[in-house]
Amino acid sequence: MLITLAILPAIIGLVIVYMLDRHREPPLYVAGLFILGALVVLPAGLFERTLLDAYSAAPDMPTGYLATLLTAFFVAGAVEETCKGVVFWRFVYHKPVFDEPYDGVVYAVAIGLGFAAVENVLYVTSSGITTAFVRAFTAVPGHALFGVVMGSAFARAKFYGGSYRKAFWLPAILHGTYDAFALAQGFVSNMLLIAYLMWLVRFAYYQALPLHGRQSQGSPLAH
Question: How many structural domains comprise the chain?
């Protein structure tokens, strides 16, 4: 039951983004990317643990809010979004199935929500049903929104001459900001997290909107 509750929000989110695509992508390919996103949790987790262990073993390392910021941006944000970006670059970017701009959004969200599903299972099985409910409205949508931004940046790079590097650093910064609020805890940081998620929905929407329904031969976009 808990595992179902942990995975269901990711599945629902992926279905919504998939159905918004006017020219539907191969469902098995999308499902495969979802699974790859789930599998990349292991190397990401191992790398994060290595960084945290090195941090804890180092002398005179920062503590308090500075330590929270370092963990949020350089451990969680940078590592997780880089791993997801590498999956996209390796299994999507140069493939014939990536033939329309909005495809990037669908594929990146599939990877991100696969990652979110496994991460959710790990949290929920250790912390219970309350965590499942909270993460269904915070962490899971967060991973989906980071995927929207990543996929939009990859699409601009492929079809309109933007820089693919933006697909790595921008989601990492957005993710790090999310984690900075989440790790800080407390009433004020929780309120800021909610406000940030509301802003992130708008930001991701306007990143993806110009791509929706465009063909690969469309006019160049600002990036």
Answer: 1
